[in-house]
Amino acid sequence: MPVSKTVTGARVRDLLLAGGELALVDVREQGVHYQGHPFYACSIPLSRLELMVEDLLPRRSVAIVVLDSGTEGLAERAAGKLAELGYSDVAILAGGCAGWAQGGGELFSGLNVPSKAFGEFVEHEFATPRITPAELLAMRQAGRPHVVLDSRPFEEYHLMNIPGSIDTPGAELAWRVHDLAPDPETLVVVNCAGRTRSIIGCQSLRNAGIPNPVVALKDGTMGWDLAGLSCERGSDRVAPPPGPSTAARAQAAARHVDERFEVQFVDAARVRAWQADPAITLYMLDVRTADEFAQAHVAGSRHAPGGQVVQSTDEFIAVRGAHVVLIDPQQVRAIMTASWLNQMGVDHVHVLLPEGQDGFSGWTVEAGSTTPNGVTAPQCDTIDAAELAGMIGKPGLAVIDLATSLAYARRHIPGAFWAVRARLDEARSAIGRADHLVFTADDPRLAELAAIDASGLWQGASISVLTGGNQAWFDTDLPIEAGRQHLTTARDDVWYKPYELGEGYAAAARAYLEWEVGLPDQVSRDATIRFRTYPPRLRQPSAPGVDGDPHEGATGIRRAAGQPFAVAPESAPSPD
C-alpha cells in the first residue's frame, strides 16, 4: 500500500475556517467515535466504509482527511481503501485525535455533536420557552387545553412516548400543526427523547408564527421518565397531512420564514449544472415522509426527513462547503429545514423549485425506497438458512455475526460469534482454527465484504455467506439465541442509548442531558465553529406558567464577548 500524505490539525482548522469543500472522516467504530472527536468529524467506520461512502462522499475528487485515535492504523487502512475506490485527494490527520488535541484542538464526545450544540445555541439565542414534566402534568390535571406533539420519527415514538402525544416528526410540525391545534388558545407542547428536537421543533412553530403558545417539554421523554411519570409504549397516533386550507396557511407561514432566514431557491437547470460540475459536491435530499418518497422522488435523491437532517446533519452531509438541494414539492418542510441549516452555518443550501403539477416535471422520477448505495462485494459462496441449521453444532464450524453488538445481544443464530469487520484479526485469535466459516450480518453486503477479508486470516477454510443475512434466519422457525456469550472484541462498535442500558438507564439519561447542556462552554473554545443569527421579524404569544421568555429579543446578536457560542455575521451565504 502506498504511503498516504498526512496533514496537521492546524492545517485542517485553517481549511475549515477558509471555507471550501472538505470532509473530515472518523473511521473508528461509532462507539469509539463517541468517546471524542473533532467537532466536524463525520463517523464512517472502516467496517462499513464501502457501504456508506457513496451517500456521504459522492464526489471522488473531494478533499478528504481521515482520522483515528492516532495509534491503531485504521486511518491508513481507510486511506488505502478509499484510493482503491477511486478517491484521489485523501490525507491522514497526523497523530489522529491525540495529535488534534495536542495541537490545541477540541475533542467532543457524543454523536451528532454539531446538531446537538446547535440545539443549545437555539435555546439560548431565541429564549425558547419550555415546560417541565411537573408543570405539564399540572396543566393536564387542571384541564387546560393542550396538545403534545412528538417530533421524533415514528420508530422512536412507537418505542416510548408521552401519554396522549401525537407523532409529528421534525419538519412535519409546521406543515401539519394547524389541523392539530385549530384553537389558538390551545397550548402546543413539543417533545423528543431529550432536548434538541424539542427545542428545534418548538422554535420552528414559533418562527412560523402560529397563533398558539408553543413550548418545549424540558428533557423530553427522558425528563418525563426521570420525574417518575409513565410513558406509553407501542402508540401509533400519527398527525394526518393537512387539508387544503391548512396547507395554504402552512405555506404562507413558510414564506415568512424563508424571508427572515434568507432561504435560497434553485431551479432544475441550475441543479443540473451543479451535477455536471466536477468541482462541486452535491447532496439531493428529499425531506418529505418515507411514504411520500416511496411514491415518487427525483432519481438519485436520498430520503432525509427534514427533522432528522437538522438533528443529525453529519449523517447526511459529510462534506463541509458542499451544495445541498432540499426537495419538497409543497416546500414547507424544505424551507423549514433550509432555515435551520442556514443558521447552523451550512453553506450553499437551496430549496428546489417545484415544476409541473407533481413538482417533478423535467426530472426522472423513481418510486420505492432508496436502493442502498455502496460497493458491490465480489461473489462469495453462499449457504441458506435451512442448510446452515443442519450444520449447527458440528465440529469445525464457526458462524460469525457482524451485526451491531446491540442487535447481536437481542438475538442471533445459536452459537454464533460476534465480531467487528475491522477487527477480524481479534476474531481469528478468539475463534482459532475453523474448517468452515459462515458470515452473516444485518446487511448481507457487510458479510460479503468480511468474507473476502477473512480469506487471508483463515487460510484453507471454506468461507460462505448466509443468503439474506440475519433476517433470513429470523424469518424462519429456527432457534434463536440471545445474550453476549461469544464476543470476540470490545462492545464499542455503537453508542448505547440510555434506554438500551437496562439498569443503568437513570444515571445514563442524566449524564446525557448534562452533556447536552454543557456543550456551549466547549463550543466557545473552538474557533472553527460558526453559527449564524438573523434579525427577528415575528413575535410569539406568551405561554403563562412556563419556563423562559417567549418573546425574541430586539436584535439578532445578544451575546456579549466571552459568552458561549461563536456567531457569524447576520447573513446567509451569498447566492452562487
Note down, in words, how this protein is organized.
By secondary structure, the chain is an alpha/beta fold. Among the domains are: 106 residues, Rhodanese-like domain (Oxidized Rhodanese, domain 1); 104 residues, 3-Layer(aba) Sandwich (Oxidized Rhodanese, domain 1); 94 residues, Rhodanese-like domain (Oxidized Rhodanese, domain 1, 3-Layer(aba) Sandwich), CATH 3.40.250.10. 36% of the residues lie in helices and 15% in strands. Strands 1, 2, 3, 4, 5 and 15 form a 6-stranded mixed sheet that branches. Strand 22, helix 20 and strand 23 form a beta-alpha-beta unit. Helix 9 crosses helix 12. The two termini are 40 Å apart. The C terminus is likely disordered.
- Low-pLDDT residue spans: 538-576
What proportion strand?
Answer: 5-15%
Overall number of strands: 25
Q: If you consult CATH, what is the topology of the domain at 5-110?
A: Oxidized Rhodanese, domain 1
The average pLDDT value, as a whole number, equals 91
CATH superfamily descriptor of the domain at 5-110: Rhodanese-like domain
Sheet having the most strands: 6 strands, mixed
Estimate the global geometry from the Cα principal axes: globular
Broad CATH class of the domain at 5-110: Alpha Beta
Q: Helicity, in percent?
A: 25-40%
Distance between the termini: 40 Å
Radius of gyration: 24 Å
Overall CATH architecture of the domain at 5-110: 3-Layer(aba) Sandwich
Alpha plus pi helix count: 22
Return the structural class. alpha/beta
